[in-house]
Amino acid sequence: MRADSDLETVVRLCFGSYFADYLRTGRVTPADHTQRVAAALWPTIAISRSR
């Protein structure tokens, strides 16, 4: 992770997306939910290899 990443916010986004999906649908979250959330967040917190 980048040194300037706000880890607390990243954790809140991960947990929040899980609860939001459950509250929106009332069902168990999809099996690929964690992969989709990670794919959306990772580009913003990953260390760029081009540095």
Can you tell me about this structure?
The chain is an all-alpha fold and 51 residues long. The chain has helices at 7-25, 33-45. Helix 1 packs antiparallel against helix 2. The model has no long low-confidence stretch (mean pLDDT 91).
Short characterization:
By secondary structure, the protein is an all-alpha fold.
The gross shape turns out to be elongated
Please identify the structural class as seen in this structure: mainly alpha
N- and C-termini, Cα separation:
14 Å
Main sheet makeup: none
- CA gyration radius, whole angstroms: 13 Å
> Which regions have little confidence, pLDDT < 50, spanning 5+ residues?
none
Order of helices and strands: HH
User: How many beta strands in the DSSP annotation?
Assistant: 0
The chain-level mean pLDDT equals: 91
Number of helices: 2
Helical content class: 55-70%
Helices and strands in order:
Elements: H1 7-25, H2 33-45
Which labels suit this protein?
51 residues, mainly alpha, 2 helices, elongated
